[in-house]
Amino acid sequence: MYFEPVCTTPSLSIAGLQVTVLMHRLPLLRGLLSLPSPVTGSCRMQSLGSQQPLKRLQGKVALVTASTEGIGLAVVRKLAEDGASVMLSSRRQQNVERAVKELQQQGLDVEGTVCHVGKKEDRERLVETAVRRYGGIDILVSNAAVNPFAGNILDSTEEVWDKILDVNVKATFLLVKLVVPKMQERGGGSIVIVSSVAGYTPFPSLGPYSVSKTALLGLTKALAPELLPLNIRVNGLAPGLIRTKFSSALWKDESMASMVKSVVGVNKELQADYEPRKRAEQLKQWRIGEPEECAGAVSFLCSSDASYITGETIVVAGGTQCRL
Questions:
Q1: Report field, pTM of the whole predicted structure over 0.70
Q2: Which side of the chain, N or C, has fewer Cβ within a 10 Å radius?
Q3: Is 200 tagged catalytic?
Q4: What distances in angstroms separate CA 303 from CA 51, 172, 190, 191, one per listed residue?
């Protein structure tokens, strides 16, 4: 036999309607109506909508070379905005202090140290500093490069080649070699090697530099399969003509800018008068890129969103055709 439960709970009057609230439904109603809980003690309720989603690089530690201006600085900022703790570096102490202060004032978790990647002791100190400060390394962005020569490639000297290859190529490999054991300790990692569209199509008068960037495309391909079993991905970034201090000689000088634009597909007249034209031309942005337009690609490659990508180089060059 079924008996209807008897409830002695007082009725609630809502807009003239009498609503009898059953005791066993009060907790549910309180949750829905945000009524105070009768339970004594400390209790904090938080709606699901107010919870902050985790950033895609949350908990990761990144090390970025040559990163107090230009593309390097933009990459540091983006990685930190996406949740990473970042160790930046530069050859000059004042540049390190300026960049760290600027980014910390923006609430980003960034530290810095002096490092000339061409020097063994500096590379070792950079890695040790990052590990001591943050407990390990998950991400390496190798961005350092030099270019002490412009002119006919046959006029370049042995000293020029030694300096360019030592810093741009050999130091990149040696830094990777230092970082890999640290990444293994954390179960894997991601490496991004910054090359250039000059690695695909040499810039006028920058033969040795362009060759070094081609070598980095090969280094990326060589490292990727060997580090894959260690759960370490290796990818590259090939920026086009980007508005930085390092590349200023390529776009400030009119004669040099004209030659470079003919190579990378940037044309001032077409930029000023951009009308719908052939599909191939429509794909080109016809302008100089900005450092921030490279940073997002690096953050993507370092994240789990790119977990099935290794041994590839992403070209960020406004539609410039890049093929070896």
A1: yes
A2: N
A3: no
A4: 21, 21, 8, 11
